[in-house]
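Box 4.2: Ligand-aware structure prediction
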Amino acid sequence: MSTLTILFACMFYAATAIMVLGLGYKIYDYARTPAPLKIPTTPAPTTTTGVAFRLFREVVFFESLFKATKWTWIFGYVFHGALALVLLRHVRYFQEPIWTIVALVQPFGLYAAFGMVIGLGGLWARRFLVDRVRYISTLSDHLMLALLLAIGLSGMGMKFVAHTDIVSVKNFMQGLMTFNIQPMPEDPILLVHLTLVACLMTIFPISKLLHIPGLFFSPSRNQADNPREHRYVSAWAAKLEQK
Amino acid sequence: MAAPKFEIPTLKEVSEVPRVQEGAMAHVQSFVAAAPIQQAIGFPGELVENWEQKAIEKMGDLLGKYRSFKVYLDACVHCGACTDKCHYFLGTGDPNNMPVARQELVRKVYRRHFTFAGKYFPKLVGAVDLTKDVLDKWYTYYNQCSECRRCSVFCPYGIDTAEITMAAKEILDSIGYGQKYTNEIVGKVQRIGNNLGLPGPALEDTLEGLEEDIEADTGVKVRLPLDQKGAEVLLVTPSADFFSEPHVESLIGYAKVFHAAGVSWTLSSHASEAGNFGLFIGNYETMRNIALRIREAALELGVKRIIVGECGHAWRVAYSFWNTLAGIGAGANDPFAVELQQQLDPRYPAPQHICEFTYDLLKRGVIKVDKSANDHRVITYHDSCNVARASRMGDMPGGQFVIPREVIKMVANNFQDMEADTIHESTFCCGGGGGLLTDDLMELRVKGALPRMEALKRVVDGQQVNFMATICAICKAQFSKVLPYYGFDMGMVGGVHQLVSTAIQLEQKE
Ligand code: HEM
Ligand code: HEM
Ligand code: SF4
Ligand code: SF4
C-alpha cells in the first residue's frame, strides 16, 4: 500500500468522524436546549403538519429568502440546486449497484457543475459589490466560497480537462467503506479535489454550514402557532411554578 | 415640537436603501438606569467589578436556556438578506442597525468564548473579546432595536434579531448596565400595577370622569366598572388608555361596545396594565411576575373571560405567552393552570383580543353602527409589529390582518391599505417599540419612522387618507409625537375602537 493511499484513507476516516460526531453533537445540543416560549414568526401554521410544510418550503424553495432579495435568491438557489444534483451524481462512487435516480441525474451533472460555479460566483460578487454585504463579510465567508469554488473547479477539471480514472476512484471509496483499503489513484487534480472535500467535511460542524441543522431547529420556523389551545412549559420554567 | 438637533429625513417618492454610513448613530445612547431603578427589580445598581466574567457566564446560562439564542448565533451565513429590512437602518444608514450586524455584536463574543473556530482562529471568523468598548456598543445598538421581528420574516432561517437583543439586554441588566426608561417602568408595574404608576383611587376618579364625558356626549349612561366581582369579562388594557390621547378614545370605544352588547365587564386595579415590559428586557421571571398579576385578578374577580385592549406587545405576551407564564388559556393538565382554566368559559378563546370580540358582535349584528358617522375620514391601517409577526387573531393564520381591517370596514366607508410591502407581516415598526419610546431616543424614533412615513405619505397624497388606525398604545404615542416632524397632523393617528366609538349606536340600558 502506498503512503499516499494510507494518507488519504486516514484523512477521510478522520474527516468523516469529525463531521459525523461534530454534527451529531450539535444536533443533540440543539435538541436538548429548551425553547421556553412560543415564538413562531406569524402568520404561522397552526398544526404540526403545517409546520412540516413550512419547513419543506424553506428547504426546497428558500421561501423567506425569495421574499427578501431576488438576486441572492437566484444565485443561492442555482448554487444549492446544482450542488444537490452534483452530490446526487456523486452517490455512484459509494454504491454498487446504484439507485435509478442516481443513474438518471448523471447527464445533468454536466450542467450542474456550471450552475454551482455560476451561483458561487454571483454570491461572491455580492460580497464585493453590495456595500451592506461587504460590511458584514468576514474572511471566513470568503474562504468558504473559495473552498467550494475550488472543489467545483477541480471536479470540472477532471470531467472536462484531464479525465481521471473514475473506476479506481470508486474502488478506493468502496474500499474505505468496507474497511478493505484499495489503492488511491495518483491523479493530481483528484488529490486536490479530495483534499478540499476533506477540509469541507472537517469544518462542517464548526462553521456556518450549521445553517442546515439550524433551519430545522429554528423556533421561529418550527413551532406551531397554537399557544391559546395548548399549554406549553419548558422544564426550567416549570420549576418556577413549584416555588 | 422643539427644534430638533438632528436632520429629519426627507420623504422620497420611491423608498431607497441608504448607503452604509459607519457610526451614524453611535452618538444616540439611551439613558442608563440609576442604581435605585436597577435594584428595585433585582439587578445590580451599577456595572459590577468583574463584569466581563459575569457577562460571559450569563451568556452561557442563556445559551443553555434558550434554543433560539443558541441556534441563531450558529446558523447565520451572512447572506445579507436582512440587511435592508430594519427600519432603523433604512432611516439612519448606520450599519450596526442592519439586523445581522446587530446580531454580530453578540455573535463575535459568542464565537470567541463558545466556539472552536473563535477560540483558536479569532481573526478568521471575526471573534472578539468582550472589552468595555464592545460592551458600550452592545448598550448603544441593542437599545436601537425595537424587537419588531421584521428581520425574522425575511431571514432564510427565521433568525429573529429580537431574540438576540433580548438576550443582550438580559446580560446587560445582569451586570448592572440597564436602560432607564424600560427598567423604571418594569419597577412601577410590579409595585403599583401599571406602567404609569397610577394608584387605584386615581384610576377610579379617571373612570368616573370618563363616564360623565360619555354621558355628556351621547346622553347615554355607559359604565366603566372597576374591580367588579362576578363580572363576565375582565378587560386588561394598556394604562395609556386611561390618560393619553388618542388612546382614551379607544377605551371609550370598548366601553360602548360592552354596553351595546349587554356584556358585564370590569377593569382591575390590581392588573391595570396589559403592557409587559418584561418582554423587552428578555427576562422570563419579570415577564412572568407581571403576567401573574392578571391571573390573580382573574381569580379574585371570578371572571369568565379575559379580553385584552389595543396594545401590540401586550397582545403578543397575552396571546403567545400567558398560557405558558400564567396558565391563562386552555389545554393545561397541571393543577396550577387548571385552577384558572376551569373558571374560564371554554366557549371563548382565552385571552381574547378586543377586536375579535367586537368583530364577532358586528358580524352577528348584535351591535348597531352608523358607518356614515366616519365619512369625514379616509382610513388606513398600520399593522403593529407584535400583532402582525408574533400573534394571531381568530382561528386562521393571518387573522390578525383580517379582523382589525374588517372591523374598520364594518364601521366606516372609506378604507385604503398602504403598499403591500409595508403592511401585514412586512409591516414597518412605528419606530418606538421595544422599550425605545423615550425622549432620550428622539432622533432614533424620528429616523426609524421614516419607512412608515413614506408609505403613509403615498396614500395621503394618492388616496386622500387622513386617518391612520392602529391597535397599539406604543404606536399611538410614537406617531402622535413623530407625525409632526414629517409635516403630518398628530391627530391623524388613532385606535380602531376610536372608529367603532364614532359609529356605534347606543341605547339607554338599565
Ligand atoms: C438542507 C439543505 C440546505 C439548505 C436549505 C440551505 C439553505 C441555504 C440558504 C437559504 C442560504 C442563504 C442564501 C445563499 O447565500 O445561498 C445558504 C447559504 C449557503 N449555503 Fe446552504 N443550504 C443547504 C445545504 C448546504 C450545503 C450542503 C452546503 C455546502 C456544503 C451549503 C453551503 C452554503 C454556503 C457556503 C452558503 C453561503 C453562501 C454565501 O456566502 O453567500 N448549504 N444555504
Ligand atoms: C469523497 C467525496 C468525493 C469524491 C470521491 C469526488 C470525486 C469526483 C470525481 C472522480 C469527479 C470527476 C467526475 C468525472 O470525471 O466524471 C468529480 C467531479 C466533481 N465533483 Fe467531486 N468528489 C467528491 C466530493 C465532492 C463534493 C462534496 C463536491 C461539492 C461540494 C464535489 C463537486 C464536484 C463537481 C462540481 C464535479 C464536476 C462535475 C461532475 O462530475 O459532477 N465533489 N468528483
Ligand atoms: S427586530 Fe426589528 S428593530 Fe430589531 S433588528 Fe430586526 S428589524 Fe431591526
Ligand atoms: S438574513 Fe439571516 S442568515 Fe442572512 S445575514 Fe441576516 S440573519 Fe444572517
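In the box above, the bound molecule is iron/sulfur cluster. The domain at 35-178 of chain B is CATH 1.10.1060 (Fumarate Reductase Iron-sulfur Protein; Chain B, domain 2).
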